């Protein structure tokens, strides 16, 4: 090195690496994109559980989660013995000598009860079981029936329901074809979103299946009592609150007229007074 010439300065190593990084980074991005497109697993940073500000972990679902669960009445009937007709007859006609009295003392065409208890002969067993379970849960309220339902064992409920279901249903009165109640039964009223009663309870009012009971064949006052119970919310065991909504759309006079329509008796003339509106009717 000649005298007086300044020494050569070496560039920092980082400056030599800059061009290399400019080539390597795009290559890394391209490789990452290719791996992602082909569904290959990519390294992820382990997640630490967070207590706040984070959504909950996803719930793992299985195929069985989407299988409909049987209704309580269905499970009870499926698990109860089927050859218990003698037990059902004993409970209905004589009781068991304990708290639940004989069912026939209140229910039936020859019942001496002063209140309009429903006639149970020929009702679907599924419907009877559901009502007794609803009394247990409080979805259907009655100071008479709730203690009875709580005292009955599941097997007794099934036996009583099957016994009544095997009995013939008494024929109801022939339904009129004219008048305000007949219009509600046969056609309903679109302006108030009232479907025809016959759509669910049958053209003759004799029932529309295991969950839609007959409206005929009951003592006078029974239909009105149930409509008023739906109105008041003391009976809240209708699917989708359908009957509660319909009962609220009916006037007092219409409720009385429907009661007379289904029981074959003239509706009370007193406007604004419900038949059996305050009685505790099972």
TrEMBL record:
Record-given protein name: Cytochrome c domain-containing protein
Cited Pfam families: Cytochrom_C
Transmembrane segments: 14-35
Keyword flag Zinc: no
Domain Cytochrome c intervals: 83-168, 183-266
Gene3D superfamilies: Cytochrome c-like domain (1.10.760.10)
The entry's keywords: Electron transport, Heme, Iron, Membrane, Metal-binding, Transmembrane, Transmembrane helix, Transport
């Amino acid at each position: 090195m000649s005298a007086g010439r300044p020494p050569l300065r070496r560039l920092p190593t980082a400056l030599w690496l800059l061009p290399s990084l400019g080539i390597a980074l795009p290559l890394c991005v391209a490789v990452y994109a290719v791996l992602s497109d082909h569904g290959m697993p990519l390294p992820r940073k382990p997640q630490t559980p967070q207590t706040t500000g984070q959504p909950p972990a996803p719930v793992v679902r299985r195929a069985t989660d989407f299988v409909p669960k049987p209704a309580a009445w269905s499970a009870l009937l499926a698990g109860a013995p089927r050859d218990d007709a003698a037990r059902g007859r004993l409970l209905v006609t004589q009781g068991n000598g304990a708290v639940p009295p004989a069912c026939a003392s209140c229910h039936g065409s020859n019942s001496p009860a002063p209140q309009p208890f429903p006639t149970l002969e020929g009702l679907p067993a599924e419907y009877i079981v559901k009502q007794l379970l609803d009394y247990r849960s409080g979805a259907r309220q009655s100071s008479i029936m709730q203690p009875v339902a709580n005292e009955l064992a599941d097997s007794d409920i099934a036996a009583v329901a099957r016994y009544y279901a095997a009995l013939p249903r008494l024929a109801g009165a022939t339904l009129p074809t004219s008048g305000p109640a007949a219009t509600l039964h046969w056609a309903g009223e679109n302006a108030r979103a009232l479907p025809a009663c016959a759509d669910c309870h049958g053209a003759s009012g004799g029932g529309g299946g295991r969950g839609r009971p007959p409206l005929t064949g009951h003592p006078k006052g029974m239909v009105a009592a149930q409509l008023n119970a739906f109105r008041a919310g003391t009976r809240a065991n209708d699917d989708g609150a359908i009957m509660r909504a319909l009962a609220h759309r009916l006037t007092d006079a219409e409720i009385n007229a429907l009661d007379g329509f289904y029981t074959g008796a003239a509706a009370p003339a007193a406007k604004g007074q419900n038949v059996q509106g305050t009685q505790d009717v099972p």
